[in-house]
Structure formats: C-alpha cells, structure tokens
Design brief:
It is built from 29 helices and 24 strands. The chain is of the alpha/beta class and about 750 residues long.
Length: about 750
C-alpha cells in the first residue's frame, strides 16, 4: 500500500455529489474522468456533445455554484467528461473508481457489472452510498472486486465539509482501509471516520436522531420553530442553521427518507419509535413544503413584503406567521460566557424552560450515543469526529457530556428514567470522570500532549491513532510554554522550533499580540532554529484591532495612534529581517494585519481554505502594517523587461482599493497575497518538519496545503463550509458592510451554515 498512488480517478455519476467530488479531486491535482448516462433523446445520436449533455450540464452547474466546489476555475481542465455507453472502458487507466449514481440497489449493481468488464484488477472501487448495505452491493462480484471495494461516504459539499466515512465489508482488504484512512486525511484534507455497515452509518445515524428527537420534543414542550432554532444553534456550538433551518436546507423529503430507513432497518434500536414521522412533518411533505428546494418549509421568505420578511411555520396550523424573537433567561446568561464547555454546562443547569429543554435533549442524545457502541463504532471518538466534521458541531456528544459532568448527568438520567448503555455505569463506578484525557506519560504511550480516549471494550484509555502527524497547540502541556501574556503565548514545539499564537477576540492583533510577536522573535534569535506563527482556532486573524484604532481617532489621541502603527510596522519588519526563519501558517479568515503578517514571513504554508485580503480600505483606512509596500516590492521583483508597469501596478492597487479577498488559498496566489517559491535574496528557508506534521498537510504546490491544521478528533472546530465574498464593491459604505459580514461569519466559524449529506446525489 505504501507505493499506491492516486493519479487518475473515475467518478461514475455527475449529480450534486458526483460533480463536486470530481471537483475536489481536481483540487488535489488528480486527473478526473466524470461519466453519466446518455440522454434518452440522444441514444441514436453520434454527436459527443449531445450524448454527454447530462454530464456536461451537471459539471457546468457545479462550477457556477456558490460557494465554489473548486479552488481555481483553471483546475476544471483536469476533469474530462463522457458517458457510460461510450467511455466506460477508459476506467481501465484509473487508480480509483467512485460510484455516485442514484440510491437504488439494482442500478448500482448493474453499474458494477459493467465496471468489472473494464476495471483493472487491483484498483480501488468505492461507493458514495449513504445507506445501502455494503454487503448487498457486493452480491455477484469477483474476489478482486470485493477485496478492493468499500463505502467512501463524502458529505456535501465535499470541498468544505471534512467528513469522509469509510465503510468496509468483511471482504475488504484491511490494507486498503488503512491506505484510504491516510489518503483521506493527508491528501483530501478529511476527517476519516471508520464506520460499521449499519443503516445511515455514523454521522447521519446520530444527527438524524438528534433532529427527530427535537421534532417530537417540540410538541411535548410547546416550543415554536424559532425558539428551537435559537436554542440549538451557536449557543451550544452548533451551526447557525440549528435544527429547522438545517432541515429546510437538506430537504424535508430527504430527511424523511433517512429517518424511515433507520426506522425500518433498525428494529432493535431502543429509540426506534422516535424515527416515526410526526404528523405535521408528514403533512408538509404531502403538500410539497420541502424546504429551500421548494421555497417553503419551516421557514418562508415573503417576497411580497417590503423587507422580504422571513416567516416561520406554526406547527399546529401549518400556516406562516411573523417570527417572534425568543427570550430565555438561560440564553441571556449564556451570552456572558465565551468558553463553550462552560456555556454548555451553564445552559444544562438553566432553571427556565430553556434549561428543561437542554436537559431533556442532552440526556436523550447522550444515552443514544452510548448505546451505539459497539453497534455503529467500537470507538467513541469516531462518533465525536463524525458529528464535528459532518454536522459542524464544535463539541461531539461525548465531549459535551464530559463538559457538563459525566457523573452528574448520569445521576440526572437515572432520576428521569433515561437509560444509557451499561458500560457508562461501569465507567463511572470505576472512578472515571472523563471520556478523554491528555497523555502525561501513561501506559498508553501516546507521547506527552497526545489525546487519549476511553476504550469501552478494554476498559482503559488508548491513544487516538494518527496523532504522530499532528501538533495541536491546545493539547501541549503547560511545560511547553516559554512565555505568555494576556493574549499571546510562545511555545516550544521541540526540534528547536518555537510557535507563537494568540487568543484575542477573532484573533485580532493588538498591543499584547505585538508584544508576543516581538518576544517570540527575541527568544528564537537567542537560541532556536525557527519560529512558526499559527493559531489553533477557527480562523487565523481578522486583522488589527480596528475598534482600538477607531477609539484613538475619536479621542484624537494621534500620538498614541502613531505609536501603535509604528509598533506594528516595526514588528512586521523585524519578522522580515530576523536572523531566524519565520513561517506563517494561515487558515480560514486571514484579513488585514493577518495578511500583512504573512506578507512579511519568510515562508507561508497556507491552508487550502485560506481567505486572505487587505480589506482596510473598506472601513476607511489603508493597510498600516506594510502591506502596500510589500505589494509594490513584490511587483518590482516580478516585472520583466518590456512589461507595462502602470497596468501591473494598477491591478495591485485595485486589489487593495477594492478590498479583494481570496476565496481559496489558490486564489491568494492570483491576487498576489501568496507567491510561488520561498526566500528573500539568496536565502531559501524551508518549513520545519515539525510544522509539516503539525498541519497534517500534503503540499499542493509551494506554500499550500489542503488538510485542516487541527481538526477532527483533536477537538478543533471543523472548518466553516464555504466563504462568500463580494470582490468588487466600489463604495466605502458597501465595503464597511462587507467587513462586518466577514466578522460575523468568522465569529460564527463553522456555525455559519450546515450543509448536510443524507446521500444527496
């Protein structure tokens, strides 16, 4: 398996999932063959464009969608299209064949019969099915086919949602599973979750339970649609789309089909009755109120109103009404608590109706996930991984249970008559209080600062696999800290490398951060080999503390303002001319001063989902940390004899003047925020080995990697699915609005919206 390479991929089926899976493999640099059926009206035609109309239209639609499934439109050239009748023989040259056709067993089996005629033995063959048993799909297949076959369930949209469920059959070669676990993690940038061949697998099984539980609970407690969405959104670390908006986005018909699948195929599930469809939901489906796809669901945008009001559904009458802003004392108290774990504990203990809701829903969820071990997974961390990476939860269910208190919640369950799995009672009786803990030199042998999970089968803690590739700052012991102040922390990563990070609001750059950057450089120059500038959080940096600058201007404290700007500029130049290499590792939102910091680093290793931009002009100021200067210098370096300098300079000026923000790390190259190659002058520093491991990266050309820095089972937030930016806004007022919008999305992190899977094709 070590020598297996994926250079060419065939995707069979060009629907919503197939076309976007094809785009994501093109993002990775693979050559992609995308196939679909011949249109009925073209069966007798010999014109390729007519015979390939379905696949070509699907790919064109995907490339025009927003958020884009592809890093750069140029990458679409890596995708060739065709049809099953004419082009299926081409799969003989492919290293991996992924089937993404309609969710019907008979159709999939017919596709596999044809695939076996042309597939080269030894190549991977997988299915993106979201619910059909893997064993059923193998009926009639050859031994070589079965050995290399398994489920690879991507979540939609594949570029943005990091979950990839792997579902092997008993006949699947374990070496193939191990290869795909590593390939998915290192190359595709996925959180790979090994799932058992059970209905809905891991994430959808748990996620649909949570939704259906709330669908029934809402009637018992007399809560409104908008009240539930307020209670189940960002306040508990879930997406802004919460519960009912999520159902609208996914499609109520799709949700109902998945729930029915679990209800019909899991008769021994202790909560089987919960998957029965409530009467109001059944009526909505019958009336075609399917959510966003039909324009009406639990919410409806009244386009006839002056402001385009969004109305909510009265579940008793199925009539739309103006939304009433929910008001709960528990939520008011939660606003004052920034730490999600502490906030989760607070809302659980609320004394009002909201507190009752949280206790009932949390207890039901915790009991349910405990009973799914070992049914859907042998390891509890895989369930947490699946919910974070697939549903955008910041805390998986076991992590949330731990945050509230395992023993305390168990006692509440017993009083309420809620039955968790028997192993939980044994776990608590043995004196355990945490499902996870950090290794401090235990028998688990994971290494200092590595995360351990409680293994139910062996009744002891084990190391979570794959951590040898990672450095997660939050999991490092306090002994690694060599200096810190209120916002910034300098850590020793080992191998002679320091890392500086900060934790201000939205990781803005203020006085404490500037102090931390300078101190890190001082320490690194005094006795280390290099410095990494990196944050574990949901974004790299929203830029300078504009609020502080604004207040200085209002108070006319111009000397202080001048001093602050000079300190920032001098710090950037210290990075530029330091005697040790400084490596910037941006990810997600990297605006203003965050971009300037990267412009002055020796090398930048950017996440593929990096949204960079000098956006200061949008709020009425110009870049103050040397970004404009660096743009001019870089342009000067790039100019060749005969270039029209004014035109080139104008384009760079417009990039700043229009506050353009890259929609990917790849586009940051095109805008000039990143550049190919490294070094200044004759110096060519390289990213330290520890950094590469810490970011779990496969380079995509110089200075760009796909995989998340610290997501998945390490406890960091799964990345926000998509980042929309307006790239040409000429008026300062609109730019200011855009800056505010960036700030809102960045603060929300992955909660901005949830894009479900549920087997969309």
């Amino acid at each position: 398996m070590a020598n297996r390479q994926i250079k060419k991929v065939a995707v069979l089926g060009s629907g919503v999932m197939g076309s976007r899976i094809a785009c994501h493999f093109a993002n990775m640099g693979a050559e992609v063959l995308l196939l679909d059926i011949v249109p009925k009206e073209a069966t007798e035609s010999k014109v390729p464009t007519e015979r390939n109309k379905i696949v070509n239209d699907a790919l064109a639609f995907a490339l025009k969608s927003n958020p884009s499934p592809i890093y750069d439109k140029r990458f679409a050239k890596r995708i060739s299209t065709g049809n099953f009748d004419d082009d299926l023989p081409k799969i003989k040259d492919c290293d991996w064949v992924i089937e993404v056709v309609v969710e019907r067993l008979d159709i999939k089996q017919q596709v596999y019969t044809n695939v076996e005629k042309y597939r080269t033995p030894g190549t991977l063959i997988t299915t993106n099915t979201s619910g059909i048993p893997i064993n059923a799909l193998l009926e009639g297949r050859s031994d070589d086919f079965a050995k290399h076959f398994l489920g690879t369930h991507f979540f939609n949209p594949p570029r943005y949602l990091p979950l990839l469920e792997l579902i092997p059959s008993p006949k699947t070669d374990p070496a193939i599973v191990a290869f795909l676990e590593q390939y998915g993690r290192r190359v595709l940038g996925k959180v790979t979750v090994l799932a058992k061949d059970t209905p809905a697998f891991v994430a959808n099984r748990i996620g649909v339970f949570g939704i259906m539980d709330i669908f029934h609970l809402i009637s018992d407690m007399g809560l409104s649609v908008e009240e539930v969405d307020r209670l189940t959104g960002p306040v508990i670390g879930h997406p802004k789309s919460a519960t009912f908006r999520t159902a609208d986005v996914v499609g109520l018909d799709t949700l109902v089909n998945v729930a029915k699948g679990v209800h019909d195929n899991c008769p021994n599930d202790e909560r089987n009755g919960l998957f029965a469809i409530p009467e109001y939901l059944q009526k909505m489906v019958e009336k075609g109120m399917l959510g966003s796809k039909t324009g009406k669901g639990f919410f409806f945008k009244d386009r006839n109103s002056a402001k385009g009001d969004i109305l909510s559904l009265d579940l008793k009458t199925l009539e739309y009404k103006p939304q009433v802003k929910p008001k709960f004392a528990t939520l008011d108290a939660a606003k004052k608590v920034d730490d999600l774990r502490e906030r989760t504990k607070l809302v659980y203990h609320g004394t009002d109706k909201a507190g009752e809701f949280y206790r009932r829903s949390f207890q039901a969820m915790f009991a349910y996930v405990s009973n799914r071990i070992p049914e859907i997974s042998d390891e509890l961390y895989r369930i947490d991984d699946g919910m974070r990476a697939g549903f955008g939860w910041e805390l998986g269910p076991f992590e949330a249970w731990e945050a509230i208190g395992v023993k305390e919640v168990l006692a509440d369950m017993q009083k309420a008559g809620v039955q968790p799995a028997a192993w939980v009672n044994d776990f608590v009786a043995a004196g355990n209080t945490h499902f996870y803990k950090l290794d401090t030199g235990s028998e688990a042998g994971a290494g200092i600062g590595k995360r351990l999970y409680y293994d139910v089968a062996s009744k002891r803690y084990k190391a979570i696999p794959g951590q040898e590739e990672l450095i997660v700052l939050a999991d490092l012991p306090d002994s690694s800290i060599v200096w810190k102040n209120a916002n910034a922390t300098v850590r020793d990563l080992g191998d002679g490398i320091l890392a500086v990070s900060w934790n201000s609001k939205m990781n803005t750059i203020g006085a404490e951060v500037i102090q931390g950057l300078n101190k890190a450089i001082d320490l690194a120059e005094a006795g280390y080999k290099g410095l990494v500038v990196y944050n574990d959080g949901a974004l790299f940096s929203a830029g300078a503390n504009v609020g502080m600058i604004f207040m200085m201007a209002v108070e006319q404290e111009y000397d202080d303002l001048d001093m602050a700007i000079r300190a920032f500029q001098n710090t950037m130049m210290r990075m530029r001319h330091s005697s040790i290499p400084v490596v910037g590792a941006p990810h997600q939102l990297t605006l203003g001063g965050g971009t300037e910091l990267c412009l002055h680093a020796d090398k930048v290793v950017a996440h593929a989902e990096t949204y960079m931009g000098l956006v200061e002009f949008g709020v009425g100021v110009i870049p103050g940390g040397g970004g404009s200067k660096e743009f001019a210098l870089r342009l000067s370096d790039e100019l060749k004899e005969g270039d029209i300098r004014i035109n080139a300079l104008r384009e760079r000026f417009l990039t700043i003047g229009q506050a353009k923000v890259s929609t990917s790390g790849e586009e940051a190259f095109a805008l000039g925020y990143l550049r190919r190659g490294t070094g200044r002058g004759d110096r060519e520093p390289r990213a330290p080995a520890g950094l590469r491991q810490g970011m779990r990266a496969r380079p995509l050309g110089e200075g760009l990697h796909q995989a998340a820095h610290a997501q998945g089972h390490q406890g960091a937030r799964p990345r926000r699915p998509g980042h929309r930016v307006h790239r040409r806004q000429h008026h300062a007022e609109r730019q200011l609005h855009q800056r505010a919008r960036h700030a809102d999305l960045a603060e929300a992190g992955p909660r901005a919206v949830w894009w479900g899977s549920f087997g969309t094709h």
